[in-house]
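We close this part of the discussion by returning to an individual protein. Part of our work consisted of pairing the sequence of a single chain with a tokenised description of its backbone. The amino acid sequence and the backbone structure tokens for this protein are reproduced below.
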Amino acid sequence: MTNVLPETAAGPPPPFDPELGAALAVIGEQMPPALTADMIQPMREGALLADLTDDDLARAGAFTVTRRQVPGPAGDPDVELLILTPTGATTPLPAIYHTHGGGMVVGNNRTGVEVVQDWAAEVPSVIVSVEYRLAPEHPHPAPVEDCYAGLVWTAEHAAELGIDPERIVIAGASAGGGLAAGVALMARDRGGPALLGQMLLCPMIDDRNDTVSAIQMAGRGVWDRTANDTGWTALLGEARGGADVSPYAAPARATDLSGLPPAFVDVGSAETFRDEDVAYASAIWRSGGQAELHVWPGGFHGFDMMVPQAAVSQDARAARVRWLSRLMGM
């Protein structure tokens, strides 16, 4: 990989929010900033990624929980969709199509879905969370193609699922945010499902890993520059940082962001992805598109999921629900 920015050009890192910084001292004991390839399997087996049970997901009867095996990409295995439907709905609901996070290397379709359920409690929606193959065993394009295949099936079976096909929003955090952006590009380019919006939370979108924020946050916070290198190398191998990386893998590589659904982009000021995410929202605007951008002061990667009680986390969560509500007309 060739860095275009001298590391000396980056100033000191921005401070963490005081509430978040205090919590980070504890979080760091279980989740160090850096992730290396030899840590992937232990993380997959570790308690930090323990799955939510069906009872957890049902939330005392608020949701029905089903799973469907649907066709994957041509010639590849089926894809499992986890479907969470609010009970008692009598008319078709909007859908939130969820692509989970995990740096492209860990997690499953239950990872992070409890956050989406919180949104659906306020903006009633059917949640469809896709299980995609993970790197490095399954490099690009397997993850994003799995996500796209699941979206196509969801849109084609909207009536069966109680979904309003005109109100499907794709959403994901971290690697899931990058996949959501990649799937939105695919849907545009392939004439696929018409998405109402794309919610990109601290999305992982630039394999070059050379922005000021990536340099500033090396060795700090959650998911630092070394971890980012590990994730992108797992997904792209030797192609990482080169000239021929597909925008479906790394949406920051896209040169045309016109014709995309409205985007919600948010990120912390004290995290690796800050500058690539701000640049992505700016590129959407330059292409004549619509994006709502939030940079949460002092936020580290995934701060709102790890420290949900912090004031800045509450603000971030409320902003997402407001955007969804406006977008869905609810």
Observations:
- Residues 217 and 250 are 20 Å apart (CA to CA).
- The chain has one domain: 62-328.
